[in-house]
Amino acid sequence: MKTKLKLILGLLTTFSLLTGCDDQFDEINTNKVDPTTLAPSFVMNKAIIDATYLDGFGTLQMLCYEFGIVQQIITPYGSSLAGANYNQNNVSNTPLVWQNFYRNVLKQIVDVVEKTKEDANRTNLYHSARIWKAYSFMILTDTYGDIPYTEAAKGYISEITSPKYDAQEAIYKDILKELDEASAALDATKAIETTDILYGGNVAKWKKLGYSLMLRAAMRLTKVDPTTARTYVTKAVTGGVMQSNDDNSVMRHTALYNNWIANHLQAREKTNFYLTAPFVNYLKTNNDPRLGSIAVRYVGAKGGPEQVASRASTDPKVQIGMPMGYDNVTVSTPAVLTQFGVASLWDFTQVNLNTVLKLDAPEFHVTHSQTQLLLAEAAVRGWVTGNAADYYAKGIRANMEQMAAYDATAAIKEDAIQAYLAAHPFDTAKALELINTQYWVSSFLNGPELFANFRRSGFPTLSKNPYPASEITEDFIRRMPYPDSETIVNQQNVNAAIARQGPNTLSTRVWWDKK
């Protein structure tokens, strides 16, 4: 009896499912929580955010390489922190820019370009994405040289999983073309993207970013193709570059969305990184008021736990930068400590974590200050009209005024700015050195740009890092090697790039870095 009853109930249930329960089948089986598509404007924002200090892990590449190569920030420690401090190839850190930009930034931005290029309602988003794509590729090719470009980030779109490497010369010429076309095509009369995290959809500011970035890219070619450089410098100035700090390309941070370098240095690396002697001494010697905004020294500290507020001094007179060429053992010998007048390695000057590297400190990508200094050099070369000395002074002023964006306590007073400019007039006989040394100061904390302009210009004049176990054949590191993962998954194209460019080492120069 029970068996018959179960059979009847089963048949009734099946009949009910077949006849009465399909009315809302599609609705019931549709996931209303997980999205199946993303608005291109939000993907664009993700690409901008992912480029911020190259993410938490990419931060280590700047701290261990770019900052150390240009001798602004150094660590005496080795192991996972080895890099420019020892002039060695740390295969854990040299691939980090590559990994972040290809896996994250370019994957996002190429997708935005592809999805908007034929959308008449999103032309401004399309052209803004082209500008950010150019910026991202500049960082990659400046860091590694020949890289995947025309076939890059096409894995999801075109199933290209082994992209060819393009020569840097071809990459730069296309970047300049893209910046030219995209900047000119931006149109304030058309739809804007109010959710844009960088400029809130302000087309005029995106134009200025595009043309200022074009100026930067053009000036990269001063040693290898001055004709092309001059052509695009002229185009950039005609189009309209940044005119004030309000035009700066800046990523703002909050207590919840932190500045990556600040986060890194306020946590596990707090006692490991120090301002260098060359950088501190330059600022001290020239009575540069920016030193008071940038630096802090925990006077007399004999260990990490003694780096406390009661010892903290921002007085420029007491700052002592860490010398190049030492490790944590050799820098701690009595002779060295006595020579530099410090109690221990923890007594050297560091970046101020309450001003330029507090957790919500902004990150600057392209600035009015940098732009004015590049115009000063272009004026010296006769490529733009205007007075090089005026551009030079405006560039210094803009960076000093930029200090206020970090924190009120970092702001530099007007009388201090005027006093510095009066004491450091432009000298035509030393024009390129003066301009590019100021660019070095102006670009503080912008690792990729510091590294690139130092190689391009040859300034500031720095002494070779004397650490005895150097692996490089040049005086300074010239590029980052390709990741080992590339030789595994894309070996044929890697080998073609190496054959064209030179050995996959820290000493090989990229195309525009001509001796």
From TrEMBL:
Transmembrane segments: none annotated. It comes from the Bacteria. Keywords: Lipoprotein, Signal. Gene3D superfamilies: 1.25.40.390. PROSITE patterns: PROKAR_LIPOPROTEIN. This is SusD/RagB family nutrient-binding outer membrane lipoprotein. Residues 1-20 form the signal peptide.
